[in-house]
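This week, look over our next protein:
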Amino acid sequence: MSFHSPKRRFSSIYVALICAFCVLFALTSTLVYCIRTGRENMKTTGAGTSSSRSLPIYSVETDEKKVAISFDCAWGVEHTDKLLEYMQKNEVRCTFFAVQFWVEKYPDYVQKIIDAGHEMGTHSRTHPYMSKLSKAQIQDELTTSAQAIEKITGKKVTLFRPPYGDYNNTLIDTCKEMGLYPIQWDVDSLDWKNLSAQEIALRIVNGAKNGSIILCHNNGLHTAEALPMIFATLKNRGFTFVPISELIYKDNYAIDHNGRQFLIN
């Protein structure tokens, strides 16, 4: 017949509680470490490379009420003069991303864009899905398309927008090696769907915030018609429009898991 004194029983309970506390503390410490590590892995450092995924710039963290509107150029120029006219009237400067075959077909429009105070980045040579290309093919797409623009403008190309918004680590890391900033967007006009001018304007003004990059197309059917509404509304809210190269940070930056670029203190 066994007998346990109350004192011995209390000691056993005390030891068990101590052990449980130690296990809980170890689990909590591990969880905190994992969370911290996860947060760090969500960031992309200055040149645009993270430990898990390389990201382009979707938007910029800033206290200033600045946004950038951009136009991808791959098909036609029917509405481009009207775009330039509305931007001149509203004193807006923007960024155009042009495919090489568009640049070579419309060199006069490339010069018009630059003469009007806007900037031009490359949108590739042949408008492919860049994630399906080898590194050598990517380098060819970026090199020849940038050279075609530079030959006309005399200005170095520093921005690149992947066709279809398609990218992978190889593309983003190759851009970095070549001195190009890969640019996406956080506000999509969907103007290529031939939305009405009002629908395009509402999508943009409702989505824009500090540091937003807005995606449009130079040959959208109702894009030019939407610009006066966009400019008037956002300017009334205190926003200014700048080219993308004047919005993004060039050094000492990181990119979070949403593609938002921010300065590193």
Summary: DSSP finds nine helices and twelve strands in the chain. The two ends are 71 Å apart (CA to CA). The CA atoms of residues 88 and 116 lie 8 Å apart. The first strand starts at residue 44 and ends at 45.
